[in-house]
Amino acid sequence: MRSDSKPRTSSGSRRAGRTWCKWASRSRSLHHKIFDLGAFTVLPGNHQIVFSRHLHLAGGDDTKAKLLAHHGAGLIEPQGRECLPNPEFLAWHRAEVFKEPARE
């Protein structure tokens, strides 16, 4: 698929093939890693991004500031509701993986 044939939003802007979150796709693997480590979670229901107070990154203050700028933001909703994260899985992640306490 050519890069100019990517799906576009109703406003005409390009959208990544997988609409996981508002963050740049070039750092997607970092987000997957820190999600798996419990540095942030996504709340069931409103899909709000919540970071742990225990967030520590080797990348330094700049990386941390860029991540924390998304604290409290919501995920980009997929075109089909069937593609939303399963609320049971998000609740499990919050209870079993996320490093409490959450930032305010």
Taking the alpha carbons of the first and last residues, their distance comes to 42 Å
- Biggest beta-sheet profile: 2 strands, antiparallel
Count of separate DSSP helical elements: 3
Bin the helical content: 25-40%
Name the quaternary structure. Answer: single chain
Task: Tell me the total number of β-strands.
Answer: 2
Fraction in beta strands:
5-15%
Average pLDDT rating: 77
How would you portray this structure in words?
The protein is mainly alpha-helical. 26% of the residues lie in helices and 6% in strands. The chain has helices at residues 28-36, 61-68, 87-96, and strands spanning 40-42, 49-51. It has a two-stranded antiparallel sheet with strand order 1-2. A hairpin with a 6-residue loop joins strand 1 and strand 2. The radius of gyration is 15 Å and the shape is globular. The protein starts with 27 loop residues before the first helix and ends in an 8-residue tail after the last helix. Residues 1-26 have low confidence and may be disordered.
Describe the secondary structure blueprint for this structure.
Blueprint: H1 28-36, E1 40-42, E2 49-51, H2 61-68, H3 87-96
Antiparallel strand pairs: 1-2
Brief summary:
The protein has 104 residues and is mainly alpha-helical. It is 26% helix and 6% strand.
List keywords for this structure.
single chain; 104 residues; mainly alpha; two-stranded antiparallel sheet; 26% helix
